[in-house]
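ARCHIVE CARD
Drawer: 12
Card no.: 0347
Subject: one protein chain, sequence and derived structure
Cross-reference: see card 0346
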Amino acid sequence: MALTAKQKIFADEYLIDLNATRAYKVAYPKVKNDETASAAGARLLRNVKVEDYIQKRMKDREKRTEITQDMVLKELAKIGFANVTDYVTIEGPYVKVKQTEDIPSEKIGAIAGIKEGANGIEIKLNDKGKALELIGRHLGMFKDKLEVSGTLETEKTKLDDLINQMRGGDG
């Protein structure tokens, strides 16, 4: 079974910036509330047909652009794992900028800019923290949402009991 017209609009919009809330509001313009759009967009992303369509389009884009996740991760790693000593040496009280040929080529990608300032040459590196955060998110190291799973074995189990268990109580 194919996607509905609204699901296709949502998926195509989602592929622009991976923002499910925005994509949902484009596909369903009558929805104005961000919370409603966010919840509904998250549900649509779990829809098997929508998920398959998005994955296929992402694979097609990867082939077309010849840009892979591995390539992006390698560039982020250059930034995330760069150290200032890759670009300068400290000799006594002086900081000396290394010659370009002395900087490994895989380290050049971490440089955001070089300029001559009032105190000499300034090297600005790309945002190391942001690069590490993006790598960590890709690897699933950070969870923005709490995931709760399990089954209710009896009708007597209540939401309060589950919340108590999550807080570390006996349940």
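Annotation on reverse: The domain at 5-65 is CATH 1.10.10 (Arc Repressor Mutant, subunit A). The two ends are 44 Å apart (CA to CA).
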